[in-house]
Amino acid sequence: MRLKLLRHATPINNGCLAGRGDVDADCSDSRAFAQMRDMIGDAGHVICSPAQRCRQTAKALNLFPAQFEPALWEQDYGNWEGKRFEDLPDLGRMEPDELATYRPEGGESFEDMAARVLPVLDRLGDDTLIVAHAGTVRAALSLTVGPAALSFSVSPLSLTIMRRTSQGWAVEAVNLTAGHA
């Protein structure tokens, strides 16, 4: 079973952390969208986070009809939601295991978010494309590398490809963007 994970297009968030905020996506780069659609190829079954930015990205790529799955929402950053990136607290150096369990006040940790995303992936039986968030992609990557998945860069409108075999999950590609086409 092949799993393709597409992060939504660039969020229109005015330099602020969106997380659970339902912001729009910038779907104006028709060349990048055409290249990404070619990279995706046969999408198989399409599952989409219900977030506006994900739905807009799927629509711009003509990936409907899609199934909407609330468990694929981005991590809830609690009191950090809507803050400018430069105003977020500096957590200093944290080991991946420690960072994965860190929970911003009123929010959820990466482990909390992964605990709702991974059951969705476990249920998949056919080739699937998921249109979701950077956190969703990292949760999937954690199936192979654990909390070290937090170190992966996941650009807007990027594709990550994994394959489930009888031995478990394997990563084929991470963070492919239209420039890689």
TrEMBL record:
One Pfam family named in its UniProt record: His_Phos_1
SUPFAM superfamilies the record matches: Phosphoglycerate mutase-like
Origin: domain of life: Bacteria
InterPro entries hit by this protein: His_Pase_superF_clade-1, His_PPase_superfam
UniProt protein name: Histidine phosphatase family protein
Organism: Paracoccus onubensis
